[in-house]
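ARCHIVE CARD
Drawer: 12
Card no.: 0347
Subject: one protein chain, sequence and derived structure
Cross-reference: see card 0346
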Amino acid sequence: LIADFLIYGTSTVANGIAESWASRAAMPNTSFSNEHYRLRNVAGTTFSRLISPPLARYCVARGGSNLYGGMQFFMAACCTYTVLTTCKLIWAQPNLSATRSLIKS
């Protein structure tokens, strides 16, 4: 129960930070506008919530909890890779010393 509390709480905070970064990076009058971002975000969230329960049930029915656990591990590894790549790109920019100190602290 404590693990569930910590995982849900920290993932919610991380998601909020990522969404605020995406909103700040939006450029008006392009395909990267805030309106397009919000539309894609809602569509992706809705699709994920629609497909996840049947996919999880299928994995448990076909391969048991080992297949389901493997799938969860794979998704966590992909997310970790994405975060590390994003941080590497941010830290590689030359004029972001203030941002580096905020992120590392």
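Annotation on reverse: The chain has a mean pLDDT of 84. The CA atoms of residues 18 and 83 lie 10 Å apart.
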